[in-house]
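Ops channel
N.P.: pipeline sanity check, posting one input/output pair.
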């Protein structure tokens, strides 16, 4: 059995592979990816779909001189293999191992750090202009999926790319998917192009016939190319890209390396922006991923034989599942409730709502900014929309939340999933900034539940409000402890769980469980400790804070977010005039947090129970 991958140990080594072996190399790469990802977890279906596409781009590039920008970037695994990072896949997405996304610090072949969608054309266009201004001549590729074209930033970039007077290659990887099935007008437009082979077939047939004609064949072929734009417009619907001023090539079989190489080489000769449209199959080569590409977008370690998860012991309910159930129940009681997803109905738990209330569910594609202002319009029209987003993607709609929702104090609920550390996806996906940018927004209420019961109650409370509300909750297992503490949800009021006299722990949401552990450690050391479940991060419960400073000498705000602008800073500001009180702020540092398991990262950055207890003891000792 050949070992073609063994011949690829650095950038450009793929050029030493014979063309007759391209298909065999693609099969080896797929086997390698399935084997490695089955052990580490990662993004599978998207990477299986772009194997030949990545090979073709690398065959046309000289790296790292040429630049490849991957949209989102979770489909860069073959790129990493072809640039000499094969050994790193044993620790893919693990602490200290290689990232699951492009990372400039990891390799000079990664042109831009990416993790969010619809950004690649903008970044690559910037690289192309930098190249031109510096008098350089290298190639610049932007690779994006058709799902990314549901995001408005891609069109802003296309609008500017049309003005370029130098070479720039945009590769549209059309697999009819983002994470879930694509929606909207662009999806329908690309579908028409996919199914319309008249132009491509006619062009090839005519050129073949003409080339066979003696003496005049080549001249006629050259002449007929002058009317190709007219033929295109007659036979292909819309020709949106050509009408924008961007040369369009395609659609091309995204699993035919030779055909793509030919297209990319042709595109590289142009003195303008060229869009090469390739059609691929997400999950190609691994039957379970082909059958259900959404389920195999991002996977935990799995059994290769049937695709089932390796770790199946913990069947605890997740916050996402709780959200899914309560949304369906609440919508049955209140016809004003609508739900909005940005291309992630399954990931955010809205699939059940979509099935039960299809007329009140809206998947807007990868368009978070539009999702929020769309919700604002609904709210102004008398409805109560719920916008379900991951924390990391909520960042993209900052201005819309502030200007379009909060300014008019509209009843929109933000369900912020994956808040806090999310682990293996790393810097671009950690949900650690939402508190900092939401807390300074006027009219916004921000909540965080301690457990499943409280999450249900907060969601119901939010849906009863006529002002903006946000509920942040972590990824994965939903905490079901402390169910004996069920004080009703009252606007702006915290919940005292344990009463002590020396130290008070003010815990936000996911950190309540940890705070109870910290209390146990400190109590064993002879300290008297109170624990407060903050519940409402905004507005600040000043009555609770007054009680806290009157009866304790050390106040410890604990949150799973960055220090700057967070809950702890608000507490410190309120306590600064209180004599005899020390504030021990526990939060993540003001930096991007790398990939690794959540437990490991919490320990490293001081958010585990032992580290918090140690920090509090140091403060107590210093105050004596």
């Amino acid at each position: 059995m050949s070992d073609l991958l063994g011949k690829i140990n650095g950038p450009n080594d793929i050029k030493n592979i014979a063309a007759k072996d391209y298909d065999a190399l693609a099969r080896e790469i797929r086997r390698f990816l399935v084997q490695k990802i089955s052990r580490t977890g990662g993004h599978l279906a998207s990477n299986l779909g772009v194997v030949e596409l990545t090979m073709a781009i690398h065959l046309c590039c000289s790296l790292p001189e040429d630049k490849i920008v991957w949209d989102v970037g979770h489909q860069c695994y073959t790129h990493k293999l072809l640039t000499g990072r094969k050994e790193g896949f044993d620790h893919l997405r693990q602490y200290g191992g290689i990232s699951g996304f492009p990372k400039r610090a990891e390799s000079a072949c990664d042109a831009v750090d990416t993790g969010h969608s619809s950004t690649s054309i903008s970044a690559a266009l910037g690289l192309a202009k930098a190249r031109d201004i510096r008098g350089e001549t290298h190639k610049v590729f932007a690779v994006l999926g058709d799902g990314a074209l549901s995001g408005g930033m891609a069109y802003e970039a296309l609008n500017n790319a049309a003005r370029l007077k130098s070479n720039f290659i945009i590769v549209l990887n059309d697999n009819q998917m983002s994470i879930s099935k694509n929606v909207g007008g662009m999806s329908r437009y690309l579908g028409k192009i996919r199914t319309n082979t008249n132009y491509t077939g006619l062009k090839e047939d005519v050129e073949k016939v003409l080339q066979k004609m003696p003496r005049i064949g080549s001249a006629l072929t050259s002449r007929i190319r002058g009317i190709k734009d007219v033929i295109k417009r007659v036979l292909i619907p819309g020709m949106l890209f050509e009408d924008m001023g961007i040369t369009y090539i395609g659609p091309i079989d995204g699993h035919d390396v030779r055909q793509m190489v030919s297209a990319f080489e042709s595109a590289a000769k142009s003195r303008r922006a060229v869009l090469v449209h390739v059609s691929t199959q997400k999950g190609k080569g691994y039957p379970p991923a082909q059958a259900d590409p959404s389920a195999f977008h991002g996977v935990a370690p799995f059994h290769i034989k049937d695709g089932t998860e390796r770790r199946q012991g913990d069947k605890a309910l997740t916050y996402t599942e709780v959200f899914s159930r309560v949304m369906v129940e609440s919508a049955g009681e209140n016809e004003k409730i609508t739900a909005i997803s940005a291309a992630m109905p399954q990931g955010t738990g809205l699939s059940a709502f979509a099935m039960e209330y299809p007329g009140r569910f809206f998947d807007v594609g990868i368009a978070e900014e539009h999702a929020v202002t769309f919700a604002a319009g609904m709210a102004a029209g008398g409805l109560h929309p719920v916008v379900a987003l991951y924390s990391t993607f909520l960042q993209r709609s900052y201005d819309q939340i502030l200007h379009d929702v909060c300014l008019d104090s509209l009843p929109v609920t933000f369900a912020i999933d994956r808040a806090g550390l999310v682990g293996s996806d790393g810097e671009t996906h950690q949900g650690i900034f939402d508190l900092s940018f939401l807390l300074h927004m006027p009219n916004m209420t921000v909540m965080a539940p301690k457990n499943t019961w409280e999450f249900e109650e907060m969601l119901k409370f939010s849906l009863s409000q006529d002002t903006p509300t946000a509920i942040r909750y972590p990824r994965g297992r939903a905490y079901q402890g402390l169910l004996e503490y069920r004080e009703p949800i009252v606007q702006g009021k915290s919940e005292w769980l344990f009463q002590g006299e020396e130290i008070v722990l003010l815990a936000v949401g996911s950190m309540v469980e940890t705070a109870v552990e910290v209390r146990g450690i400190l109590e064993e050391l002879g300290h008297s400790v109170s624990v407060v479940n903050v519940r409402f991060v905004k507005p600040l419960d000043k009555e609770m804070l007054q009680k806290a400073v009157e009866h304790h000498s050390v106040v410890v705000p604990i949150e799973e977010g960055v220090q700057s602008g967070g809950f702890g800073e608000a507490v410190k500001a309120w306590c600064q005039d209180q004599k005899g009180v020390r504030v021990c702020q526990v939060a993540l540092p003001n930096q991007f947090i790398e990939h690794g398991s959540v437990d490991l990262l919490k320990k490293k950055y001081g958010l585990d129970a032992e580290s918090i207890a140690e920090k509090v003891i140091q403060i107590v000792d210093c105050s004596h």
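N.P.: looks fine end to end. The chain has a mean pLDDT of 90.
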